[in-house]
């Protein structure tokens, strides 16, 4: 039985996503437990990309999950830090099923948005687009645009144009903060658009 347990833990370790190796600060399992309680309409929720075995280790403080996993930032423009949580139901045939946005203050958490996400492609991830002021659902359909650097001389004067490399994502679904309603709203369009990905 001990050997089987070790094997299960090893599988969990091998399936941990790359962000599990990220630097702190870290999120305590108790915070995650509060988050899923804010979404009672969905049962047995787990963090996308994190196995059931890894959740068990996390609950026993044998695994540390970095805050960066949940992309904490001021997405509403109000100065408040919100957290984006991708959630999965183990019985689902999709790698990720829901998106939950929460905000916290002194250990108390508030639900701001919760929705089931089912794009045509099974794999998706939230991505912040600062120019759009939106959290888009990125299905990994990208394109790259490039421009060569140029330099001109005319009558002793020099003028230059820098080159560029830009990556775009094809987006048809996103979440944005509605200032009038003071809440996150879900947006969807029939014809997807190319949005320029923020440079890191």
Structure description:
A hairpin with a 2-residue loop joins strand 10 and strand 11 (157-161). This protein has helices at 2-15, 29-37, 52-59; strands at residues 26-27, 46-47, 65-66, 82-88, 98-105, 108-116, 125-129, 134-138, 142-147, 150-154, 157-161, 164-178, 183-196. Helices cover 16% and strands 42% of the residues. The chain starts with a helix and ends with a strand. It is α+β, with helices and mostly antiparallel strands.
Mean pLDDT: 87
- The number of E-state strands comes to 13
The CA-CA distance between the termini, in Å, is: 47 Å
* Number of helices, counting only DSSP H or I runs of 4 residues or more: 3
Query: N-to-C SSE series?
Result: HEHEHEEEEEEEEEEE
Radius of gyration: 21 Å
Write the layout of secondary structure elements.
Elements: H1 2-15, E1 26-27, H2 29-37, E2 46-47, H3 52-59, E3 65-66, E4 82-88, E5 98-105, E6 108-116, E7 125-129, E8 134-138, E9 142-147, E10 150-154, E11 157-161, E12 164-178, E13 183-196
Antiparallel strand pairs: 1-3, 2-4, 4-5, 5-6, 7-8, 8-12, 9-12, 10-11, 12-13
Briefly say what this structure is.
The chain is an alpha+beta fold. The protein contains three helices and 13 strands; from the N terminus they run H-E-H-E-H-E-E-E-E-E-E-E-E-E-E-E.
Key structural traits:
single chain; 2 domains; 4-stranded antiparallel beta sheet; 42% strand; disordered N terminus; alpha+beta; 200 residues; 5-stranded antiparallel beta sheet
